[in-house]
Each structure stands twice: as structure tokens, then as C-alpha cells.
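Field log, afternoon session.

UNIT: design team B
ACTIVITY: writing a sequence onto a fixed backbone
BACKBONE:
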């Protein structure tokens, strides 16, 4: 590949890797575990194989020996290497730590190279060596330019063996699949062949332990199955039932396979083609695997959006509820109505007037004014807190109805925060001061309603509140008297501003309450939808670079 093209491909691949690494599937929705596993596999394949292979395209071909339990993978590797590089035995699973056998001239490529760079390199297997290690053994019996990697069983009873086996396969240039005459029709074998087909991997199959007397029947049936599966043209090798000595097969049983490896070694064009086909197959698989990840992320984002929509709907409904209460007169009842009647019936309303002509200020009655003001504040607070309570209960009820996951997010959130009452009291007190300031700045207190009188601003602000909250009918409240004293124009103008300001303050209180639910969702670590968009874009950029 020309240097410029290789650089463009590396840039696109690195961007794709970063985009995949940024994904977070914080919600345990159906399919989320599979999405996390797919993400891990993609990252491992990019870092273990794709990026190193594009950077070092001339590296020796890595051939993974894969198969089911007891298929004889380690025996086959030892036979081809003419050296016991991998442990064999009747105990299953036998291979725990992956073992790589290569020609001494290729040893440096694998000991220091980036292929499978996340695995610790060892010269020999030790009891402490785990699945995250790689034993590298050099032998002159293997041809230069190809290396064999013995992997754990694909159907091992040890779960970790499955993961490392698939990681080895994802990092391979060619696959040699080993199965037996007794087990070639088993599901694990065909699952692996299906995976190889999906990834476009260059593949060869070894059918071992074939009895001479039944060889024709078995081979014909196996060939027919491969053809039906679309794998009829792949390279196939047969190893007959033979005595294993010192962990190795008779040399005659592996001659054909040894020649196949030798041809790959000497024919650089053929080897390069095999590597290129597998690499292209992996890159082609990204066309479906990466968008599938993006769709999982979109499902997470969509579910979070639904839960956030529940929060917004509940608190908007609560705000609209308060709007209705402020316009239909229901706020003026109980203590508020009693204080208003006390304020007007006692004559304090008239004493709040100032007689200009006489130039005397009327004596105020602050006790009743303050009590009336406090009653309005308490009434508003109770309405707001009650609405917030209903909104909190509604959010949690909606979340529970959606799923168990929603119910989990709603735990301990079915009541408003402990600070709501204090914040509400502060907000209403501030709003009352704002209304008094509106009365002053709008000049209502200075304008004469008649030629004789003008109003004290604080008392006038209280009268405005009554007028605003009394509704169109004003049942139980002398609404027409207030309207006559103040004038309809002033009442509409200041009333509209005051109600708008009150709604904004209540909205801010509800926003703070809603943030508790948003924080509960955000704690799951779900990125926004732009991450999925970047993933689609990275996939497109990779296609362009190819």
C-alpha cells in the first residue's frame, strides 16, 4: 500500500478505535451485555490485529490453530514444529496459555511486535502464566514467514478460554480449524466456521482421527456439508487415526499440511494475498458490526430520552396546574380569604389611602398587612409543594411502568427534595418584593385613581395579588371594587408581568427538582446521541480511506 494511502487508512482506523472506546452502555437494557462484549471484541481486534497489520504489512503470517476440546490441536502444532512446544494430554482442557511457534528469524516480530500487543510475552509456560500471556517458542522446523498459534478450546468448560480463543482468532491472518471424524457435525464446529465466513477469514480445515475403513463415507459427507454451507472450496486436510508418540503424530500424517505451510512461506504473493483477504474480511465486517454498536447506543439514548420526557411532562403538568389555580380563584381560600376579609372589613384598606388634599399620611396597620402578606406566601408555598409532590410521584410511577430498570432509577425519588420548602419560601418572598417594586416603578402608587387619593405601594401590591388570584368571577372577593380602584389597564399590565415572573420562579424551582432525576439518569454514563453519529461518521471515513 502506498505510504499516503496507508497513512489515511491508519488515521481512519485510529478515529474509529477512539469512537468505539468512547461508547458507554450504562443502562442494562436487553442486548446491552452483548453490545459491551461486541465493543470489547472490536477494540481488541483493532489493537491486536488490524492496526499492527496495517503498520507492518510485511510481518510473518500468523496462523491460528483452533478447534473443539480434544480435537488434537496441540498435537498437530507439536508435529508440525517437530518439537513439543505445546502441552498435550488427556486432561481437558489441556491448553491454558496460548503458545506461538515460529522460525527463529521471525521470533523478533512476535516477541517485540504489536500483534497481540496486550499479552505478556513468555519464553515458556509457567504455573503462574495465565490467559493474558503468550508463550513464544522458536523452531527451525517451521518455515520462515509463517507462525502457528495454539489456542484454548472454543468449547472449553472454562469461560475465559472462550474469550481468549476468539481473541486469538480475531488476531489471525489465517485459520486452521481442527475437528475430528466423530465431532465434525457438532454445533461448536459450525459456529466457528460461520464466524470465519462472516469475518471473511482465510480458512483451512483439518479433519483428524479418521478411521481408514470409514474414511470415504466421512469425507464425502463432510465435503457435502461444507458445500451446502458455502465453504466447498476451502483447503482440507485429513489425518487418519494413528498412534501418537511423545505428543506428536507420525510425520506421514502431516506431510500435506507441512507442504501447504512451505508453499505459503516461499510464495510471498500467495501469503500476502491470504493476509490481504483476511484483513479485508475484517474491515468488511466493520460495516455491520460497528453500526450495530451504534444502534445499541441509540437504544440507550432513546430510553434515557423517554425517562427524561417523563420528568419534563410531570413537572410541566404541575406548573400548568399552578397556572390554573392562579387564574380560577382557588388560591384565595381558607386562611388567605380570611385575612383578605379581615384586611378589608376592618377598614385597613381605606386607611392605606393617602389623602393628598389634606397632605396627611394615613396611619398604617402593619399587623394585618403583614399577616395578610404571610398568608398569601404560605398559600402559594403549599400549592407549589403539593404540585411538586404530585410531580415526583408521577415521575416514579411512569418509570416503574416502563421497566424494572426505570423503577431502579426512581428509588428514593418519589418525594421532593428536603430543600424544596425552604427554596419555595424564599422564592415567593422574593416575588412579593418584586411585585411591590413593579408597583413603584410602574408609577401606579403615584397616579391618582381619583383626584383625591393615591395608594401606599406595599398595600397596593397586596391588592394586586388579590386581583390577580381572584379569577374572573371573584367569588367571595370584592373583585369589582379592586378593579374599579386600580383600573383595568393597570391591573392587566402589572398583573401579566407579575404572573409571568411568578411562573418563571416556580419553573426554576421545578427545574431544580427535575435535576435530581436527570442526575440519576446521567450517573449511568450514557453519552449523548452525537457519539453514535461520530461512530457512523468514523465507519464512513474508513470506507473512504479504503
Amino acid at each position: 500500500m502506498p505510504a499516503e494511502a496507508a497513512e489515511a487508512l491508519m488515521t481512519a482506523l485510529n478515529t474509529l478505535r477512539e469512537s468505539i472506546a468512547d461508547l458507554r452502555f450504562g443502562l442494562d437494557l436487553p442486548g446491552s451485555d452483548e453490545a459491551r462484549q461486541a465493543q470489547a471484541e472490536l477494540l481488541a481486534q483493532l489493537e491486536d490485529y488490524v492496526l499492527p497489520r496495517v503498520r507492518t504489512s510485511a510481518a510473518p503470517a500468523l496462523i491460528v490453530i483452533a478447534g473443539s476440546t480434544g480435537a488434537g490441536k496441540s498435537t498437530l502444532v507439536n508435529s508440525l514444529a517437530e518439537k513439543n512446544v505445546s502441552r498435550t494430554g488427556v486432561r481437558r482442557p489441556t491448553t491454558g496459555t496460548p503458545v506461538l511457534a515460529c522460525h527463529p528469524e521471525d521470533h523478533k516480530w512476535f516477541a517485540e511486535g504489536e500483534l497481540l500487543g496486550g499479552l505478556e510475552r513468555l519464553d515458556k509456560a509457567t504455573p503462574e502464566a495465565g490467559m493474558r500471556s503468550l508463550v513464544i517458542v522458536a523452531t527451525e522446523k517451521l518455515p520462515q514467514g509463517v507462525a502457528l498459534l495454539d489456542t484454548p478450546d472454543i468449547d472449553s468448560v472454562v469461560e475465559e478460554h472462550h474469550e481468549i480463543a476468539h481473541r486469538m482468532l480475531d488476531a489471525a491472518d489465517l485459520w486452521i480449524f481442527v475437528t475430528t471424524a466423530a465431532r465434525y457435525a457438532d454445533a461448536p464446529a459450525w459456529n466457528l466456521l460461520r464466524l470465519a465466513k462472516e469475518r471473511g477469514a482465510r480458512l483451512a480445515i483439518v479433519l483428524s482421527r479418521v478411521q481408514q475403513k470409514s474414511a470415504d463415507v466421512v469425507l464425502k459427507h463432510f465435503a457435502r456439508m461444507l458445500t451446502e454451507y458455502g465453504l466447498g472450496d476451502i483447503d482440507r486436510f485429513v489425518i487418519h487415526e494413528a498412534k501418537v508418540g511423545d505428543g506428536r503424530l507420525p510425520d506421514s500424517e502431516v506431510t500435506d499440511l507441512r507442504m501447504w505451510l512451505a508453499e505459503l512461506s516461499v510464495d510471498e504473493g500467495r501469503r500476502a494475498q491470504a493476509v490481504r483477504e483476511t484483513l479485508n474480511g475484517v474491515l468488511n465486517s466493520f460495516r455491520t458490526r460497528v453500526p450495530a454498536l451504534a444502534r445499541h447506543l441509540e437504544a440507550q439514548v432513546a430510553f434515557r430520552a423517554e425517562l427524561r420526557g417523563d420528568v419534563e411532562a410531570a413537572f410541566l403538568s404541575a406548573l400548568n396546574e399552578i397556572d390554573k389555580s392562579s387564574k380560577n380563584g382557588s388560591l384565595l381560600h381558607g386562611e388567605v380569604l380570611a385575612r383578605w376579609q379581615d384586611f378589608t372589613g376592618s377598614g385597613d384598606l381605606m386607611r392605606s389611602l393617602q389623602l393628598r388634599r389634606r397632605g396627611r399620611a394615613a396611619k398604617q396597620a402593619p399587623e394585618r398587612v403583614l399577616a395578610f402578606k404571610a398568608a398569601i406566601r404560605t398559600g402559594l408555598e403549599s400549592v407549589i409543594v403539593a404540585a411538586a409532590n404530585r410531580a415526583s410521584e408521577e415521575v416514579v410511577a411512569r418509570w416503574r411502568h416502563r421497566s424494572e430498570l426505570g423503577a431502579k432509577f426512581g428509588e428514593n425519588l418519589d418525594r421532593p427534595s428536603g430543600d424544596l420548602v425552604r427554596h419555595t419560601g424564599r422564592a415567593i418572598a422574593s416575588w412579593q418584593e418584586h411585585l411591590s417594586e413593579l408597583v413603584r416603578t410602574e408609577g401606579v402608587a403615584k397616579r391618582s385613581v381619583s383626584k383625591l387619593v393615591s395608594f401606599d405601594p406595599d398595600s397596593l401590591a397586596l391588592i394586586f395579588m388579590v386581583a390577580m388570584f381572584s379569577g374572573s368571577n371573584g367569588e367571595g372577593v370584592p373583585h369589582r371594587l379592586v378593579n374599579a380602584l386600580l383600573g383595568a389597564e393597570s391591573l392587566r399590565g402589572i398583573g401579566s408581568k407579575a404572573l409571568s415572573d411568578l411562573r418563571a420562579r416556580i419553573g426554576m424551582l421545578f427545574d431544580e427538582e427535575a435535576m435530581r432525576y436527570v442526575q440519576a439518569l446521567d450517573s449511568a454514563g450514557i453519552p449523548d446521541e452525537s457519539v453514535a453519529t461520530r461512530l457512523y461518521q468514523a465507519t464512513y471515513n474508513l470506507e473512504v480511506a479504503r
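LOG NOTE: The CA atoms of residues 273 and 536 lie 29 Å apart.
NEXT ACTIVITY: expression trials, pending approval
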